Amino acid sequence: MFFRGFLEHPRMVGSIIPSSRFTIRKMLDPVDWNECRLFVEYGPGVGTFCRPVLDRLRRDGTLLVIDTNPLYIDYLKRTISDSRFIAVHGSAADVEEIVQAAGHQKADYVLSGLPFSTLPDNVGPAIAKATHDALRPGGAFLVYQFSARVRDFMVPHFARIEQGFEFWNVLPCRLFWGWKDEAA
User: Which residues pair with 143 in a beta bridge?
Assistant: First the structure.
């Protein structure tokens, strides 16, 4: 299923295989799960991060995933039967409207593995801005990539960007955590 999605939409899928458990753990470590009511994921694919997020998410929390590929959205709706899970066919650039349509004001965290270096022109910057606008003050944009290009899109919106690296992934990947200013 994952490989099929890559073949059909190679510019929109970051890799031909899902992320490693090491990448998942490292990306999710900074999340304050006690305070997380809404966790959003862009490009969930076959749900590699979905179960780990749901395992950590509070009982009254929501995991909202957004993907432009209906193949993945249909698959996730069939395979994840958690009442806290919502899968939406749509664009990450429309995250504010999608969050509000799901009954929330702001997201606490947004996770993305979208391949920012291969997205069409102006899509990456639009997603970074929309993500910042959709996050609550103190929330974070969590991004894992093979390229550092996404940082260029994050800098205008996120005052503090932490970086990491995960060697135990195919391919090794760069990790970014962009924190929305508490005063925003």
Answer: 112, 176
Element (H or E) spanning 56, and its range?
Answer: helix 50-56
The span from the CA of 37 to the CA of 111, in Å, is 14
Name residue 171's amino acid. L
List own/partner pairs for 170-174 with CB under 8 A and 24 or more apart: 170/15, 170/17, 170/20, 171/15, 171/146, 172/146, 173/19, 173/23, 173/144, 173/145, 173/146, 174/144, 174/145, 174/146, 174/147, 174/148
CATH 3.40.50.150 applies to domain 2-179: yes
pLDDT tens by residue, 74-120:
999 999 999 999 999 999 999 999 999 999 999 999 999 998 988 88
Which of 103, 109, 116, 96 has its CA nearest to residue 41?
109
**Per-residue model confidence as pLDDT tens digits over 117-137:** 888 899 999 999 999 999 999
How far is residue 83 CA from its own chain's centroid?
A: 19
Q: How many CB atoms are located within 10 Å of the residue 70 CB? A: 9
What gap in Å lies between CA 109 and CA 13, rounded to an integer? 21
Domain locations along the chain: 2-179
